[in-house]
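Contributing: when you submit paired examples, paste them exactly as shown. First protein:
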Amino acid sequence: MNILGISGLPGSGKTLVSEIAIEKGGKIVSMGDIIREEAEKRNEDSSTTAIKLREESGQYIVAELTISKIKKMKNEKLIIVEGIRSPFEVSLFKESFPDFKLISIFANRDIRFKRVQKRNREDDSIDYDEFLKRDKRELNFGIGNVIAESEKLFINETDLETYENDINQYLDELISK
């Protein structure tokens, strides 16, 4: 079983990696979805829940919930873990899955903001100052260190076709091993 973690700031292009992986038979486990599910249970916004979960249960809690979910998945050739944000999470994934790989997606702030405005998800802001606050919060979780630990960094600032080709090639190589 190949387990691939994906990291990157909002709007960088993580979801496209997941979509391509699904086309190749991969399964997605989104750490953001786990937080959103918990936020709904608590009747809070996901930003508040992300912070509170870590305060209440430690830096590893979202990773622990994700790992538990992955361990229940059997006979999958590729599992994508979306949204890794802290070095604590990376450590736990590597301890739990010896063949765990980590990639990161980078795009500059202006490009990412335009993408976030277009997709308009529940936890996205079309206000630039709010967008910057979210970036800062994610950076405070340690996402910069996660990106630095990645086995591969994809720059997603050119055309869509080039980015898709790069991702396809990487995933094909990963699955064939």
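Second protein:
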Amino acid sequence: MRIISGKYGRRLIKPPKNIPVRPTTDLAKESLFNILTNKLSFEDKSVLDLFSGTGAISYEFISRGCIPVTSVELNFKCVSFIKSTSQNLQMKNHKVIRSEVFRFLKSSNKKYDIIFADPPYDLDNINEISTIVFKRDLLNENGFLIIEHPQEIDFSNEKHFLEHRKYGKVNFSLFYYLPDL
């Protein structure tokens, strides 16, 4: 696994084998960031990375100039790995929170420019992520929500849905937030 671009570009990240994750492939990650690069400037954007796993998406956002970046993950080993990697790379403005994601979302009052969620594909309530984000008003105006999900999930009828992209077995649904007029 590697950081693709930015300040920490080409750095290899080697997570331990004993953490229960399904990292986003480098191809899918690179494609997603190419899409986002054409839609926004990363500088000084606040990011929330949900179900952070190895932290790969957080590192990519930090490498490209996003600050602050908050990683939320429940698994203790993953949280330890993310903290250790962030410290080793001297990443500033990276906050790592050990929490169940839905509990975190329901109690958070902070707004973000970008929210990325990569839940386990067998999670029963993946659809609730977008519902909670928009109901709790967690995105800034012109903010993006990106959800990685299995092919069977279809967000196209959801409010604020922008587009769906598929890269092999990886599916991304992008949402764009403009407040109702």
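If you have annotations for the second protein, write them as plain sentences, like these:
The chain is about 25% helix and 25% strand.
The chain has one domain: 26-177.
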